Every structure is written in structure tokens, then in C-alpha cells.
Amino acid sequence: MPRTQFDHLARPYRWLEYLTFGPMLARCRFRRIPELTHARRALVLGDGDGRFLARLLATNPMLQADVVDQSPAMLRLLRARTEALGAANRVSIYEIDALAFRPAESAAYDLVIAHFFLDCFTTEQVCELARNIQPNLAPGAIWIISEFSIPRGLAALPARIIVRSLYFAFRILTGLRARALPRHASGLVQAGLALRHRKAFLFGLLISETWAVTGLSRSKKVEATQSRPCRSHQHEFISNQQRRVQPRWRTGWPRH
Question: What residue ranges define each of the domains in the chain, with the CATH number in brackets?
Fold first, then answer.
């Protein structure tokens, strides 16, 4: 992903978030924390100023985390939060484009976090990111995602207007090149994960999802990931899978 300029938004980002969506983004972001006390090694993608990571580390004192972000200003805020918590020694920071990040060969993540981050990418880039991370997922690993989404029914039109407006604003403010929400499910399914739970907020505009590694062996998952191209039209199958874990309606902003 071409480098974007989130540095000048680092300090006001939290307040901009509250001015636009009130507490709902935070509520969506923090939704799964009580479920994550079992995790021991986490990969945190684009957590921005570190509000989520600080709360997760406080809740789970055994957790070690690798953090990937390409914004130095955001990472400075994240580092300050972990230091104030006394947990800086449990965090490794990588200032790098997520698509260029390669986990250490010995890394085995039982938790991956991506809050309002995948929407900075195209569907094909999300698939590439999932392929890069997949070999380092431990058996039983889960991937937590918070995202914007376009719901069905009467809420679809206002949701599309909001999402397009946000992409336009972030393109002007940061140089973000993505223009539409990616079909992130395509990449996760091909990386051997299955959707386990989905919670919708704001009439489906926001979603919180839990994905889990399936029972396939590691070698079979790698083979399947390498043999199938990641294409947007596969979303038709994935949408059917998602409907089985949610009620009647389907519910995916750019960034943290």
C-alpha cells in the first residue's frame, strides 16, 4: 500500500472519531476484549494511537504483542500508552507497511487484530496480507476485525453515503488510495479461517467479527491458499457463509 500521511491526524484522531460517531467506534473496537484473556501472542495491525492495545494489555497481563503501523506519530502515542501502563516490555513495534511486514519464522500468533484497518486496502491487498500472515497462525488462532459495512435494506443508502464521504475525506487528508470497502472475507477464507461471530452496530454500518482458524492442517491450508486466486466474485460464497452466523440482515472506515 502506498504510504499514507496519518501523522498529522494522530493527536486529534480520537476527538475526530467522537465528533463523527460518538462512542460507537470505540464500542465496536473494544467489543471482544473480554473474550481475549486466553491469548498469549498477538499481531496488532494498525492500532493507531494504541487505545485498544493498552486496554487489551491491561486485561491480559500474559499477552505479548507485535504491532505493525507505518505512522511514526501514531506509534509514538501507542508507545507512550504502553509505557504508562508499564507494559512496554511486552510490545514489539514495527514501523512498516503491513503488506511488507513478514513475521519472524518462530512467531506463532494465536490472535490477530485489525480494527478499522483493512478498509485502507483493496480486496486483492487484503488477500495478500492474509496470505503473508497465514503461515504464522497458531492452531486455534482467532482474527478480530472491526470494520465499516454496507447493510441491506433501508440502511444501505445512508451507509453508502457515509462510507463514500469518509473515503473522500481521508483521500484528501492522508492520500489514501482505496475508494471502497474491500471484501475482506475473501482473504480470510482463503487463509483458512471461518467466520464464527458477527455483531452489528449503528444499524449495520459498523461490524465486529471473530474469525477462527479451521481444522485444516497447516500444510493443507498453505496449499489451498497458494492454489486459489483471490477474486472479488468469491464474495458470493462468503456472503452465504456469513448469513449462517447472523440474523436476517447482512452487515463490513478507513483506519484505526
Answer: 7-243 (3.40.50.150)
